[in-house]
Amino acid sequence: MADLSFIEDTVAFPEKEEDEEEEEEGVEWGYEEGVEWGLVFPDANGEYQSPINLNSREARYDPSLLDVRLSPNYVVCRDCEVTNDGHTIQVILKSKSGILENMFLPS
């Protein structure tokens, strides 16, 4: 099980505001029918919108990517806000930004 001790003194996930729910009432989130998002959300009509088809047959090896080293620098989250939108959660850090340095990403 993951160690979640770095999140201390958190409160329950806040519920959505009533007006937020009313805005989204007519649109149900899902993986189906994504090609029609542009009809509901005109901003989603761009050329490079998700979902993006990543064709692994066209992928190319880049040895310079191996030089990147990242390492996590965890700070106890005391001044943060955790929200739940029903599909994901967000942790919003209010006083510090997260930085990753020298963390090895296995291939």
TrEMBL record:
Signal sequence interval, chain numbering: none
Annotated ranges, domain Alpha-carbonic anhydrase: 27-107
InterPro entries from the UniProt entry: CA_dom, CA_dom_sf
Region named Disordered: 1-28
Skewed-composition ranges (Acidic residues): 16-28
Protein name: Alpha-carbonic anhydrase domain-containing protein
Organism (species): Marmota monax
